[in-house]
Design goal:
single chain; 293 residues; alpha+beta; two-stranded antiparallel sheet; elongated
Length: 293
């Protein structure tokens, strides 16, 4: 067999062609790969651009509302440290009672007469005269007959508890009230007060005729008209029980700026059982209960 001889020139040409073909193939492969890698980047850039154009009103850093809604729907409910649902807004407790609309009751109102407010700014009707009854059997002290029934019930209940609610001063005639008022007024004038100043001081203690609850027979000065009454067991019993019979301390110590009258622990006014209990529960005087302050 003859040995195969290869023309050196031919071999060289073939080698060059093979190298060229290999280079072309390498270029094609690298170009394809580069084009494939660049396509997602181009799409991503395009997507960001479109989003900015369409939704430019959405603040940076905020997520899409619908997306948030879907995520929140799937997410477990958050709880506070005690296991309860956290509050998104602070909640405030409702007041015990809302401020009621101002209510001025006529003393002649057949249903709400017990809530009539009487004072310098709210005088009784001219010639008003209540029907009277003895506050306690055998006593000369009288009250409006509708009030006297409740006072007797309260008196008897207190008596069983060892307290005697002696009726000291209930209904007063206009003439008696005027005499009492004038006497105190003249006292202050004699002390150098002007008539206006004397009237202001007097009305903190005694009201003019027609402006006093005594003229309506709705109140009772119990045991005495003395500040010492506050230290008696009768006063304590009244504070604990009077509301159950429709009576309230009309001029409390901490309400003087509202009532305009000095603290009078002996002066108890009938307002009706329901109103008395509500006033006691909410620490209200009559003006507050009626909403006129």
């Amino acid at each position: 067999m003859k040995p195969v001889t290869v023309n050196k020139r031919t071999f060289k040409v073939k080698a060059i062609l093979a190298a060229v073909l290999a280079g072309i193939m390498l270029i094609l492969i690298v170009g394809y790969a580069f084009t494939k890698d660049m396509k997602p980047q181009k799409d991503l850039t395009s997507g960001v651009t479109n989003a900015n154009e369409v939704g430019s009103a959405q603040p940076a850093g905020e997520e899409n509302t619908e997306q948030n809604t879907e995520q929140n729907a799937d997410a477990p409910a958050q709880t506070d440290e005690n296991g309860g649902q956290p509050q998104t807004e602070p909640q405030t407790a409702e007041p015990t009672t809302a401020k009621r609309k101002a209510m001025l009751v006529d003393i002649n109102d057949a249903e709400n007469w017990a809530l009539a407010i009487i004072g310098v700014n709210y005088p009784l009707p001219d010639r008003y005269a209540p029907n009277l009854s003895e506050a306690v059997d055998g006593s000369s002290v009288k009250l409006d007959s509708r009030v006297a029934t409740h006072y007797r019930e309260m008196y008897n209940a207190a008596k069983q508890a060892g307290c005697i609610l002696t009726p000291y001063s209930g209904y007063r005639t206009y003439s008696l009230q005027e005499s009492t008022y004038t006497r105190k007024l003249n006292y202050y004038i004699s002390q150098g007060y002007t008539e206006e100043q004397a009237a202001a001081e007097t009305q903190k203690k005694t009201l003019p005729a027609g402006c006093s609850e005594h003229n309506a027979g709705l109140c009772m000065d119990i045991v005495s008209a003395s500040s010492d009454f506050v230290n008696t067991k009768e006063f304590q019993w009244l504070c604990d029980n009077a509301m159950n019979y429709g009576f309230v301390l009309r001029y409390p110590e901490n309400k003087q700026e509202i009532t305009g009258v000095n603290y009078q622990p002996w002066h108890w006014r009938f307002v009706g059982v329901e109103a008395a209990k509500e006033m006691a529960q909410n620490n209200q005087c009559l003006e507050e209960y009626l909403g006129i302050v």
